[in-house]
Design brief:
- The complex is a heterodimer of chains A (501) and B (252).
- Chain A has 501 residues and is of the alpha/beta class.
- Chain A folds into two domains: 87 residues, Alpha-Beta Plaits (2-Layer Sandwich); 362 residues, Aldolase class I (TIM Barrel), CATH 3.20.20.
- In chain A, the strands form seven sheets. Chain A has an eight-stranded parallel beta sheet.
- The radius of gyration of chain A is 24 Å and the shape is globular.
- The N and C termini of chain A lie far apart (62 Å).
- With 252 residues, chain B is of the alpha/beta class.
- Chain B has a single domain, classed as Glutamate synthase, alpha subunit, C-terminal domain (Pectate Lyase C-like, 3 Solenoid), CATH 2.160.20.60.
- In chain B, strands 1-2-3-4-5-6-7-8-9-11-10 form an eleven-stranded mixed beta sheet, covered by helices on one side.
- The radius of gyration of chain B is 18 Å and the shape is globular.
- The N and C termini of chain B lie far apart (54 Å).
- The chains are: A alpha/beta (501), B alpha/beta (252).
- At the A-B interface, helix 3, strand 5, helix 5 and helix 7 of A face helix 1 and strand 12 of B.
- Strand 5 of chain A pairs parallel with strand 12 of chain B.
């Protein structure tokens, strides 16, 4: 069938600069650049280009530009190019449209409508270059009160297991199989050197990463891949994955061709077989059932590890989070609808879930109202782009954030949204060994460490400006935030005042 | 396996909360105890959950949900009925239930053996897997409710239908829905409409009997059944028609 799809991008090669070295051909994993042996010339197939910018950056003579292909369809507010293309793709295949990354749709980003305060005259700001500034965060349930022995001054209250983070920034769950082992190595090494956590996702734990177990969150999802007692005990935190911001309410299929020999080892399934994660956990149909799995995992790890429950930000997230905390979870992770994925149906990625800012504010408020906010830490994720987003999240009530896309960008990702194809030219979201070696775990880890360092310095600067010297003093302190360009309802949900008031 | 009464440590579970009971089990096993007998069990959850030794545990009464979840080695015998989630994500070991078991028996099990004398609830053997030398076995004496073997990705499930009269079909529907690995041996009859659309049906071959015979023998040994009586009725083999049931779902 002849495709009716048009090229989205144009690869423009400057003939003056091009030396026909074929680096672009070798770098392109989408077959957009090729060598025409008959004409002895490097050429491009625009229809295959995904605008990942790999050839642009690796061209030794700077000869390549990739641009949007000239607008080909007549302007129409309703029938945009992407709508027309999607219909054509489905008319040609009869399938569900798949995509990668987080939604690229024009939904409001509430972080950009929140502004932070700073000290002026009436209270002094603090200079983080001269004074200690505390970013250490402890994840885990906190007691209702502390009892201290009068004589020995020792703590009498028995504390639940706590996990110390040097920075309130962790790496989101990205499974081996979805991302490459080199990506996981980079994340694990960076987490361990920075003193934070990385997350295995639901694909099991590769043996080469066991040495980072003190900085590892192991995930238990509906497929239960690679879940066994050694795995559960290898992690510092065990996370039950109920949902994901990019695809709330649905499961996942890792196609058999991605289940390589090594992936089969960690998922503990035969090579080449589909790894199907059903939409629900079939032992969880209620909060009571969730409580049961939380406690099964506590039993399995002898109450030594916090149990985390990750849900997608959905309409009634606050009520669900309350149930999760009452079910005994020590950490609640909420993933907003801008969160990314290795593969999800596009219609779900772009239409299901709610913004993380609103979900976070409503969950934090609800848990406070019910007097159970101390019983669990709140971690949020889904489109955290910089330290400004992080500090606003903490002021809204989060204990820490997870970063996925930002971390992958640090490793080379150019957000071309082709994760689902398995052809990632940056070697991130692929299991093709030719491509995966494009991520060097040593360099990757260093880039991530640098990113976390940069963000930490910025967070300290902002804290100093606010006149507080500890991230704890900012947590849930919404008086430090003001809204701009928001409706009264938005402000009410966010629990912040409008700027100027 | 019969426990030698002289070496078995007895626990009276009457009124003991599950957390305390399991703590006690962990302690005993750390001290090298190999045979444990628990009496008056009444709904305590997670028995055997985090144990990974070769210990024998005999349970008298009714253990609670998630019996032997994530279990990695022990043999658990229940003189009574098991509830939901028995053998949930089990890796290794054996569960023998002298009664019936509830929903999701053997959910996501990767290894080990589960023998249920009577019937099981809904979604038995759902998403069982197999991996290298590990191949979970779930033998059910009577019948299973709907969705048995759903999403099954490996292992062996045997439905004996011992409570069914000659010619009476198994009651469960949506048998093997989404099945993409493993095998179900079903003694007696089942109608096509009761099967998931991913399931094929065939007569047993010689190699199937080589798998089936020792498992039936083991079942008979546990529950004192006559092997010949069981093998006298016809068996059917239910298998996944596709290894990639959802391969053609997407437009890339």
């Amino acid at each position: 069938m002849k495709t009716l799809l048009t090229s989205k991008f144009a690869v423009i090669r400057d003939p003056e600069k091009c030396i026909q070295c074929q680096v672009c051909v070798n770098q392109c994993s989408f077959n957009a650049n090729y060598f025409d042996a008959e004409e002895n010339e490097v050429k491009s197939r625009n229809e295959n280009c995904v605008d990942c910018q790999r050839c642009v950056i690796f061209c030794p003579t700077d000869a390549i530009t990739v641009t949007n292909a000239p607008l080909e369809y007549r302007y129409n507010r309703n029938w945009t190019a992407s709508i027309i293309d999607d219909i054509n793709k489905q008319a040609e295949t009869g399938g569900v449209l798949l995509t990668g990354m987080g939604t690229d749709k024009d939904y409001p980003v509430y972080w950009d409508h929140l502004l932070l305060n700073a000290s002026q005259v009436t209270n002094p700001s603090i200079d983080p270059l001269r004074e200690p500034m505390e970013l250490i965060t402890y994840l885990g349930g906190k007691p209702d009160k502390l009892e201290i022995d009068d004589n020995t001054l020792e703590l009498k209250t028995k504390m639940l297991p706590q996990v110390k983070l040097n920075v309130p920034i962790m790496f989101s769950a990205m499974s081996y199989g979805a991302v490459s082992l080199n990506v996981q190595k980079s994340l694990a090494k960076a987490a361990s050197e920075t003193g934070t956590m990385w997350n295995t996702g639901e694909g099991g734990l590769h043996s080469s990463l066991k040495k980072y177990s003190n900085n590892t969150i192991v995930q238990v999802a509906s497929g239960r891949f690679g879940v066994h007692s050694e795995y559960l005990n290898a992690g510092r935190i065990v996370e039950i994955k109920i949902g994901q911001g990019a695809k709330p309410g649905i499961g996942g299929h890792l196609p058999g061709e991605k289940v390589s020999c090594e992936v089969s080892l960690t998922r503990m399934i035969p090579q080449g077989s589909d790894a199907i994660s059903p939409a629900p956990h079939h032992d969880i149909y209620s909060i009571e059932d969730l409580l049961q799995l939380i406690h099964a995992l506590k039993e399995a790890t002898n109450y030594t590890k916090p149990i985390s429950v990750k849900i997608a930000a959905v309409h009634n997230a606050a009520a669900i989070a309350s149930g999760i905390v009452r079910g005994g979870a020590d950490i609640v992770v909420i993933d907003g609808f801008r969160g990314a994925t290795g593969a999800a149906p596009k219609i779900i990625r772009d239409n299901v879930g709610i913004p993380i800012e609103l979900a976070l504010a409503s969950v934090d408020s609800r848990l406070r109202e019910e007097g159970i906010r101390n019983k669990a830490s709140i971690v949020i994720s889904g489109g955290i782009r910089n330290s400004g987003d992080i500090i606003k999240a903490i002021a809204l009530g989060a204990d820490a954030v997870n970063i996925g896309t930002s971390a992958l960008i640090a490793l080379g990702c150019h957000v071309c949204q082709q994760c689902h194809t398995g052809k990632c030219a940056w070697g991130i979201c692929t299991s093709d060994l030719k491509l995966t070696k494009r991520v060097n775990p040593e360099i990757g880890a260093q880039r991530l460490i640098n990113l976390l360092r940069g963000w930490s310095l910025e967070i300290k600067d902002i804290l100093g400006g606010l006149g507080v010297n500890s991230i704890e003093s900012l947590r849930g302190n919404r008086l430090h935030l003001r809204g701009v360009g928001l409706t009264d309802t938005d402000l009410e949900i966010l629990g912040v005042r409008p700027a100027g008031r | 396996m019969k426990i030698d009464d002289m070496t078995a440590v007895k626990i009276d579970a009457c009124g003991i909360y599950y957390r305390e009971l399991n703590e006690k089990l962990r302690q005993l096993i750390t001290n090298g105890v190999e045979n444990i007998e628990i009496e008056n069990v009444c709904g305590q959850r997670y028995i055997g959950t985090d144990l990974d030794s070769r210990v024998n545990i005999e349970i008298h009464g009714t253990p609670g949900n998630d019996l032997a979840a994530f279990m990695n080695g022990p043999t658990v015998t229940v003189h009574g009925n098991a509830q939901d989630g028995c053998g949930n994500t089990m890796n290794e070991g054996k569960i023998v239930v002298h009664g019936h078991a509830g929903d999701i028996t053997g959910l996501s099990a990767r290894g080990g053996k589960i023998f249920i004398k009577e019937g099981v609830g809904y979604r038995a053997g759902i998403h069982m897997k197999e991996y290298e030398g590990k191949k979970p076995v779930l033998v059910i004496g009577n019948t299973a409710q709907d969705f048995a073997g759903e999403y099954m990705a490996g292992g062996i499930m045997i439905l004996l239908g011992l409570n069914l009269a000659e010619g009476e079909k198994h009651p469960g529907k949506f048998l093997g829905t989404g099945m993409h690995g493993g095998v179900i041996y079903l003694r007696g009859t089942v109608e096509d409409y009761q099967l998931g659309k991913e399931v094929g049906i065939a007569e047993l071959e010689q190699k199937d009997y080589q798998i089936l015979n020792p498992l039936i023998a083991e079942f008979c040994e546990h529950f004192d059944y006559d092997n010949e009586m069981i093998m006298n009725r016809n068996f059917l083999k239910l298998y996944p028609r596709y290894l990639r049931p959802y391969g053609r779902l997407y437009a890339y």
